[in-house]
What we know:
Layout: E1 3-7, H1 25-33, E2 43-46, H2 53-61, H3 63-73, E3 81-82, E4 88-89, H4 93-112, E5 118-121, H5 143-155, E6 160-164, H6 171-177, E7 183-190, E8 208-213, H7 219-237, E9 241-246, H8 263-280, E10 285-289, H9 295-313
Parallel strand pairs: 1-2, 1-5, 5-10, 6-7, 6-9, 7-8, 9-10
Antiparallel strand pairs: 3-4
Helix pairs in contact: 1-9, 2-3, 2-5, 4-5, 7-8, 8-9
Amino acid sequence: MTTVLITHPAFLNHDTGEHHPERPDRMRAIDKALSADTFAELFHREAPLRDDDKTYIELTHGPQHLANVTAAIENMASGHRQVDSDTVASPGSWEAARRGVGAGLDAVDLVMTGKVTNAFCQVRPPGHHAESNRAMGFCFFNNIAIAAHYAREKYGAERVAVVDFDVHHGNGTQEIFWSDKDLFYGSTHQMPLYPGTGALRETGVGNIFNAPLRSGDGREPFEEAFRQRILAPLHNFSPDVVLISAGFDAHHRDPLAGLELVEDDFQWATEALADVARRHSKGRIVSMLEGGYDLKGLALSAAAHVKALLDADA
């Protein structure tokens, strides 16, 4: 078995306009980093357009949200459209958004059937801010939540966990998981910061585990919060599969936030989650790209993350 990288050139065609931080160059930066000899053993696969993706989008978001996004972006001919204050669509956005969902579904198929040990989905637009009935924060569909529901619906996974180390709290994933005790959501993130959610008191039905950090926090506060607030309850939850919202904007170079992590911190977190997966989930991990807006910081961090996934498979 191996680690699979799932991506597609169509992600470059989601054009957010000049000066938008969530830009196509993010894909190019990761492509270059993962072209190094270190990653020669990665299995490459194209993110698909699937016939069943809308079924699972509706399972997570409901038919009205799918209809709203479809009406807003499916048939764009030119230009840009503001879907919310910072979520921008272009003619290439519909295919990119659907392939992002398809990447997560494909990764779950490969991991749950044992064809690969783990997967990294290099996709855009990101997903973790999209709520059940609202596109926001650069996100149209919540890719990771859709993948979680798919793992349960298609493969009978009884307990599915999402761990999110993006610097911004994944309000959408939290909202979608809020009342479901068999879906775990754990997040480290900076507070106060967009979107304003993620306080310790937000616990759902005992399945939500937030670990807010302060601007300027670096390795030691991050590791302590990750161990105590994420890993300890995650072991108790004993997931059948571990999903990761892999945002790299907690890197100290990132322009949108103020945490002081370096790429080694993301490698450490990935290794810790791989240990959970080995103990409880037969090693099964599906990771999906979220944020990360400094190109160098993103490239270094994504490379460290994927290297840890490869090493977990060794």
